[in-house]
Amino acid sequence: MADIDRIRGEIERARKNVARLRRDIAALQKAGRSTKVAEDDLRLVLNRVDGLIGERNRLRAGQPSAMQGKVLGGRKW
To answer: Where do the structural domains in the chain lie, given as residue ranges?
Structure first.
């Protein structure tokens, strides 16, 4: 479970970086500056997020479901 929590934290930090990079790109466009470097950075962060999400999903699939073995409101028959 610790691995999934760590990956979720990394995903959250990367999403904040994506938002920051998008704001930076908008500011550069408004100023009439080149956005090539910022767009490349954004692409790298988005690829990292995709990889982390895939890793999180792989780890989540290996864990038993919270509802596994329960029927009708949590009763075990």
So the answer is: 2-61
What does the pLDDT profile of the chain (77 residues) look like in tens digits? 678 999 999 999 999 999 999 999 999 999 999 999 999 999 999 999 999 999 999 998 888 776 666 666 666 55
Contacts of 25 (CB under 8 A, 6+ apart): 35, 38, 39, 42
In contact, 1 and 64? CB cutoff 8 Å: no
Smallest CA-to-CA distance from 15 within 38, 54, 49 is with 49
Q: Is 18 left (phi over 0), alpha (psi -120 to 50) or beta?
A: alpha
